[in-house]
C-alpha cells in the first residue's frame, strides 16, 4: 500500500465512522499525465452524491491542512460509490455476495482461464465455489482463495 493510500485511509476513516459510512477502497493511480486519488465509500442502502461531496470536502480540508503535504504531486480527488461492480475486499463483502454474480481474476490460470465469472454459491476460509456457465451447461468450479488476485460484483448479460 502506498504512503498516499495509507495517509488518506487514516484521514478519511474518522469522517466515515462519524457518518456511519463504510470505506470500500482507496487508490492512488496515474492515468495518462494525471494522478487520481479515488476514495470509494458506501453505506447500508447505498451512498448518494451529496454524501460523497460531503466526504470529499471534509477530506480535502484535512489534506490541505497537513504540513508537509502528504501528496506532493498534483492530483484529482474523487469520492464516489463503488458502483454496481463493487470490489470484494473484506470477508463481509464476500459473505454478502453469496448468491450474486461475480468476476474473479486469478494469479494462476484454471482450465486455461485467469478471468472467470459466475454465481458465488459457497465460500469458506480456504475456497470459494462459483456456478459457471460454460457454453450450454452449468458447472460448479471451486477456487483456492489464495489464487484470487481480485474479485468484484459483476453484471450478468
Q: What's the β-strand tally?
A: 8
Taking the alpha carbons of the first and last residues, their distance comes to 34 Å
Residue runs with pLDDT of under 50 for 5 or more positions? none
Topology pattern, helix = H, strand = E: HEEHEHEEEEE
**CATH topology call of the largest domain:** GMP Synthetase, Chain A, domain 3
Helix content: 25-40%
Q: Structural class of the helix and strand makeup?
A: alpha+beta
Strand order of the largest sheet: 7-6-5-4-8
Q: Into how many domains do the coordinates divide?
A: 2
Query: What is the CA-atom radius of gyration, in angstroms?
Result: 18 Å
Nearest-integer average pLDDT: 93
CATH architecture label name of the largest domain: 2-Layer Sandwich
Describe the fold and architecture:
The chain has 157 residues and is an alpha+beta fold. It has 2 domains: 1-78, 2-Layer Sandwich (GMP Synthetase, Chain A, domain 3), CATH 3.30.300; 89-151, SH3 type barrels (Roll), CATH 2.30.30.180. Helix content is 26%, strand content 43%. It contains 3 helices and 8 strands. The strands form 2 sheets. It has a 5-stranded antiparallel beta sheet. Helix 1 crosses helix 2. The mean pLDDT is 93. One of its GO terms (biological process) is ribosomal small subunit assembly. It is found in: Cytoplasm. Required for maturation of 30S ribosomal subunits.
List the helices and strands and how they pair.
Blueprint: H1 3-19, E1 22-31, E2 34-42, H2 49-65, E3 76-80, H3 91-97, E4 101-110, E5 113-123, E6 127-134, E7 137-144, E8 148-153
Parallel strand pairs: 2-3
Antiparallel strand pairs: 1-2, 4-5, 4-8, 5-6, 6-7
Helix pairs in contact: 1-2
Amino acid at each position: 500500500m502506498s504512503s498516499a493510500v495509507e495517509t488518506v485511509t487514516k484521514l478519511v476513516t474518522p469522517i466515515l465512522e462519524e457518518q456511519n459510512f463504510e470505506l470500500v477502497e482507496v487508490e492512488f493511480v496515474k492515468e495518462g499525465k494525471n494522478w487520481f486519488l479515488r476514495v470509494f465509500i458506501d453505506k447500508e442502502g447505498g451512498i448518494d452524491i451529496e454524501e460523497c461531496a460531503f466526504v470529499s470536502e471534509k477530506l480535502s480540508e484535512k489534506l490541505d491542512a497537513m504540513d508537509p503535504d502528504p501528496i506532493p504531486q498534483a492530483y484529482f480527488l474523487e469520492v464516489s460509490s463503488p458502483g454496481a461492480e463493487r470490489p470484494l475486499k473484506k470477508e463481509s463483502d464476500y459473505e454478502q455476495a453469496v448468491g450474486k454474480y461475480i468476476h474473479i481474476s486469478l494469479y494462476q490460470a484454471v482450465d486455461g482461464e485467469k478471468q472467470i465469472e459466475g454465481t458465488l454459491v459457497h465460500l469458506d476460509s480456504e475456497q470459494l465455489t462459483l456456478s459457471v456457465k460454460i457454453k450450454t451447461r452449468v458447472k460448479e468450479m471451486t477456487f483456492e482463495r489464495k489464487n484470487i488476485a481480485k474479485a468484484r460484483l459483476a453484471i450478468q448479460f
